[in-house]
Automatic annotation (TrEMBL):
This is VOC family protein. It comes from Sphingomonas colocasiae. SUPFAM superfamilies: Glyoxalase/Bleomycin resistance protein/Dihydroxybiphenyl dioxygenase (SSF54593). Residues 7-124, 137-256 form the VOC domain. Signal peptide: none annotated. It comes from the Bacteria.
Length: 258
């Protein structure tokens, strides 16, 4: 894996209805999500115009009984999965799926940070760098946003274990700071950390880049999704919105400004 330790290298939608999710996201974001595999686990690749950007995992009855809910998950690339998992547990995190090897894919584990936010850590088998995240790449995740119960503790945790640095902040009144984060000191911001808004389940949220926000809003509503916030202009001039897909997974969209 050519990505630096702590970079986002993959994104995964967990959904009880991959066929419906394919119809929805292919329409809304412009992806091509693969069809159901002929055998084995129902896991489908998500392709943007310039390559793969993520996957879709079908939630089966056992997963749902174990507490799994529809949603998007992020994968952090790490140099050593087992060492990272051990350090996270020592810092107060928990293991949800122990480290294991997937042939031709890599070694992965699912853990949660000390505030209870679930993440994957992975050492990919490929020598090529992942391009799933692309700040300005159409159809890719363009922004990674963590809403958490303790933003100061979360910033310290992701700095310590993933070398993710705070590189600035925007004040939000009683909500505190919207802290911008990057994979290196002085690097381009890849997202932000903030206190969880009332009624929002803490977790990482992801914004997919589309060409135009109003047209995307119309596609969400036509396809059975719900826009919960926006569209609105954010500092820097880009347009964003937040939404829920028909199966209940939260996501965001970002587009160039008007």
């Amino acid at each position: 894996m050519a990505n630096a330790h702590g970079e986002f290298i993959w994104y995964e939608l967990m959904t009880p209805d991959p066929d419906a999710s394919k119809i929805f996201y292919d329409s809304v974001v412009g992806w091509t999500i693969g069809d159901r595999p002929s055998q084995g686990m129902d896991y489908r690749m998500i392709a943007a115009a310039d390559g793969f950007v993520g996957g879709v995992l079908a939630l089966n009855a056992d997963m749902v009984a174990g507490g799994a809910v529809p949603g998007w998950m992020g994968y952090f690339g790490v140099d050593d999965v087992d060492a990272t998992v051990a350090a996270i547990v020592a810092a107060g995190g928990q293991i949800h799926l122990p480290a294991s090897d997937i042939p031709d894919v890599g070694r992965i584990a699912m853990v949660s940070d000390p505030q209870g936010v679930a993440i994957y850590v992975m050492r990919g088998a490929s020598d090529e760098a992942s391009t799933a995240y692309g700040r300005h790449a159409m159809g890719h995740v363009s922004w990674n946003e963590l809403q958490t119960t303790d933003d100061a503790a979360a910033l310290a945790f992701y700095d310590t274990h993933f070398d993710i640095k705070k590189v600035g902040a925007m004040e939000m009144g009683e909500m505190g700071d919207y802290s911008f984060i990057a994979n290196s000191e002085g690097g381009e911001a890849i997202g932000a950390v903030m206190k969880a808004m009332p009624g929002v389940r803490p977790g990482w949220g992801f914004y997919f880049r589309v060409p135009e926000i109003e047209a995307a809003k119309a596609r969400i509503e036509q396809a059975g999704g719900t826009v919960t916030h926006g569209p609105m202009e954010v500092p820097g001039g880009e347009m964003v919105l937040n939404a829920i897909d028909p199966q209940g997974a939260l996501f965001g969209l970002v587009a160039p400004g008007k």
